[in-house]
Amino acid sequence: MLFGLTNGPAVFMDLMNRVFRPYLDQFVVVFIDDILIYSRDETEHVEHLRLVLQILRDNQLYAKFSKCEFWLKEVSFLGHVILASGIRVDPSKISAILDWKPPQNVSMVRSFLGLAGYYRRFVKAFSMIASPMTKLLQKDVNFVWSERCQKSFDQLKTLLTEAPVLVQPESGKEFVIFSDASLNGLGCVLMQEGKVVVYASRQLKQHERNYSTHDLELAAIVFALKIWRHYLFGAVSRKLLFALRSMNAIITMTEDGAIIPGLKIDTEGCLRFKNRICVPKNPELIRMICDEAHSSKLLIHPGSTKMYNDLKQFYWWHGMKHDISDYVSKCLICQQVKAKHQVPSGLLQPIMIPDVTPPNPAHEP
């Protein structure tokens, strides 16, 4: 790779992804120049290792032997220690957090939360614990390091040193989600066979603080289903969906068991998203809808904003606002008639200028 290439890491990462694309997430994980090979047993690992080394040779890529490690029972990778029993935080990274002194300004608070937040999946109710410090990051808030901030700071450091080992989820086994909600935030935990897979939490948005207890509990469930949908694909039972529907949640399931929030099929067989008809990405169909909403006999060529606000009450499709704006910008009548395209008009009637010669004072008697 040439020296001085500004996007060198991105280019090299793209190369590695293309080289190992058939085997990514099967037994290889690649991050720039770090290659992690994992297997279930030693026999399988020999085959995986031979295959990876052969791919590197075929593409004229070389690994320095002194920097390679083989046949490890545990390995440090991207700030985590990966074991056969699960994943835990890297002690070397945690030592940096433990040595962190109380922040003296907003920038130091942001740096601490950035490092500690990288391990938030290991900490139960991370967002709620860190809320006194995150409030200092808000706009127009004076920096005052209070006792609540110090308590939050110390508690996070303690919890990170006592972080549990998270197990790796296995497909085909049952998942269990525990969720909770309060006026401080939403929290949930994903478990499998009684062991923790991952924690998740977030603070409440401003409008959510007006929710009832019933709605807050439902928001916690929906939050868990959304962020862990890659784990729960095909694993959510219809019994859970019926329970959510009884709580007025608009959630449906495909035949494969996929969760689709906000989608439902009406009595006429139309797919709707939040009570709006879903339009397929068909250019001809979208043009017909735009023609009817822009140049029909009952309309007067509305602008893109007005047209979008009218159509979004009944229809939805991906890239809707952009398509409408592009349609209006290409309308020939709008280009010819709109005021901003016209030459500024002059006066309706010209003012007659009298042709009168002023008297010369020198000829007056």
From TrEMBL:
Domain Reverse transcriptase: 1-82
Pfam families in the record: Integrase_H2C2 (PF17921), RT_RNaseH_2 (PF17919), RVT_1 (PF00078)
Protein keywords: Multifunctional enzyme
Record protein name field: DNA/RNA polymerases superfamily protein
Entries under PROSITE patterns matching the protein: RT_POL
Residue stretches spanning the membrane: none
GO molecular function: catalytic activity
